[in-house]
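dumping this here so i dont lose it
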């Protein structure tokens, strides 16, 4: 059996330690080898699914893919305070994840305040808030 077949089997059984160990051995961020790069993304996905947010946080310091995966995982878990802290620390993707989280919860005014407080000049953040739609205008 090839390593990736073993990893898939471990993943299906939610044997995260085994799956992560197998995949990480073949993972390389921005590798010219597409399989190694795909393994890197798979590795990050496994970390998120295994709830290893501390490992993702560590990788996110130097890896844009890990940063995006972490922010997505935080949003999916409703971890607003952590996203807000990351956004205030300068992580624009965390800000966008925070705004999506607030928007999905119908908390449009809070989203607007977050943009004004954290990054008032960020036009993409302003556009995200504006895209919440007609209900966002009614909330004003």
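and the seq i came up w/
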């Amino acid at each position: 059996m090839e390593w990736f077949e073993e990893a898939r089997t471990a993943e299906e059984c939610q044997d995260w330690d085994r799956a992560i160990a197998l995949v990480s051995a073949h993972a390389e961020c921005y590798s010219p080898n597409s399989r190694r790069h795909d393994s890197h993304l798979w590795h990050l996905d496994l970390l998120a699914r295994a709830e290893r947010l501390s490992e993702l946080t560590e990788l996110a310091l130097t890896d844009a893919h890990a940063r995006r995966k972490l922010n997505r995982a935080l949003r999916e878990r409703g971890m607003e305070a952590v996203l807000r802290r990351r956004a205030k620390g300068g992580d624009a993707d965390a800000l966008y994840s925070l705004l999506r989280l607030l928007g999905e919860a119908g908390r449009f005014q809070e989203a607007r305040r977050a943009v004004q407080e954290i990054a008032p000049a960020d036009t993409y953040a302003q556009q995200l808030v504006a895209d919440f739609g007609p209900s966002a205008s009614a909330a004003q």
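Residues 75 and 101 are 6 Å apart (CA to CA).
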